[in-house]
Amino acid sequence: MYTENNKFDVIIVGGGAGGLAAAVCCAKKANKSKGLRIAVLEKEPKPCKKLLATGNGKCNLTNMNMSEKYYNTSAQSFIKPLLSKYTPQKLIKFWESRGLFCVPDEYGRVYPNSGQAISVADTLLINLKKYNTELFCNTEVKKITKVKGGFAVGCTDKEYFCKKLIISAGGFVQPNLGSNGSGYSFAKDLNLSCTPLFPSLAPVLCKDKLLSVVKGVRCNAVVKCIADGKVIHTEKGELQFNEKNISGICIFQLSRHINEFFSLGSVLGRPCRKIQINADLLPDIAYEEIFSALTLRRRLYPDSDAAEIFCGLLNKKLSRYLCLKLNINEKLSAGDLSDDDLSAFASLSKECTFIPCAPSLKENAQVTAGGVSLAEINKNMECKKYKGLYIIGETLDIDGLCGGYNLHWAFISGIIAGHNAAAGDSLK
Ligand SMILES: Cc1cc2nc3c(=O)[nH]c(=O)nc-3n(C[C@H](O)[C@H](O)[C@H](O)COP(=O)(O)OP(=O)(O)OC[C@H]3O[C@@H](n4cnc5c(N)ncnc54)[C@H](O)[C@@H]3O)c2cc1C
After folding, report:
1. Ligand 1 center from residue 211 Cα (angstroms)
2. 56 plus 113 within the same structural domain
3. pLDDT of 136-164, one tens digit each?
4. What pLDDT is attached to residue 33?
5. Does residue 399 line the site of ligand 1, with CB under 6 A?
6. Is the CB of 51 under 6 A from ligand 1?
7. Which of 37, 127, 425, 428 has the fewest other C-beta atoms within 10 Å?
8. pLDDT tens track for 107-136
9. What kind and span of H or E run contains 219?
10. How many CB atoms lie within 10 A of CB 116?
11. Could you list the residue range(s) of the whole structural domain that residue 226 is in?
């Protein structure tokens, strides 16, 4: 039996970005009209652990360049009207009307004016308090069951009842920040279908022993993901070399394809047998210019080391890396290099291939690709099979590119679910 203590009108599972936005909207609406009892259950000792880590602690909360093309989902038509209705401008208004001022950078990425993710978390928490929403931390939900008139929410040492339930348990990446995939287990227990899960926005592991030579180096590059010989995605940005992987935002943006390849044997939903990343390490200089610069250097400094042929063009370690990749003896002098050698150097700097060797580690990824199928919910984020059950944020089969798209989705899906959960007749 439930006592008055553990009976709620609305329970939100997960005190992260989406869950707290949902709670704030639900509580505000409910406070005005009905005075509902609302609770957030959070497994960690404090809410918003992941939110605080976003944008390197600065929280890139939306992007002025918004379009469904920046999202991956099996149902693109589902998010298009939602993004048109809940624009970045509208989300900024949501924050600014609560005292959190936002500022876009030159790329349209929007951050709190304070430059601190904690301002976003504090704004949500102060609003929870204002509307008397109860927040239970160290409270991990283990089981969700449909019961008469609502849902039973089983935690380690207690069971709660609620008339309406919002599942906002995040994804399965970076479990150290709270979410460990429990949202998908709840969905499966309730017979809701899930699309396959894999990590996205992550470093790409590569089979390349020479990476140790170049680890720690960063350079501007144009990177291309090539599936079965076809370029499927191009990005420009800072490429970072690490001991076992390549990373940087431009690589994060391509990583979804690599991880889909390793997890499902497909890329963009089509079967694929071979995947690679090609990087142009001198994107602003044409091959011919590079070749003539190398020729000039050979003529001017014939006694210098072959591995230093790129001096002044590329990072020294990167120059050595290319030399080793081409199997050119490092002990040679620049004057010993043939035109063919210089041509091979120039070509490699314009098209350096990396072969991914394994899926990215979920511990290093920013978001989960796949999730609860969008066919299971309506535009209010409510389950078609269970009235009063809402699912939001990363738990759903939607993942965005880097740039504020994932938080935009978490917040707007939370806002939609929160409003609708407070509006229903069954709560009266
Ligand atoms: C390092 C890093 C940086 C990122 N930077 C950005 C960025 O700058 N911009 C951007 O748009 N996106 C960014 N992301 C992605 C973004 O943080 C997520 O997509 C977003 O937080 C998802 O929101 P959510 O509410 O769905 O899930 P979460 O924020 O993960 O919240 C889920 C909450 O549920 C709790 N929970 C899970 N299971 C249970 C359970 N069984 N019982 C009770 N509580 C539970 C978790 O502890 C967590 O607090 C970043 C991610 C990472 C890891």
Report:
1. 31
2. yes
3. 999 999 999 999 999 999 998 899 999 99
4. 56
5. no
6. yes
7. 425
8. 999 999 999 999 999 999 999 999 989 999
9. strand 218-227
10. 16
11. 204-282
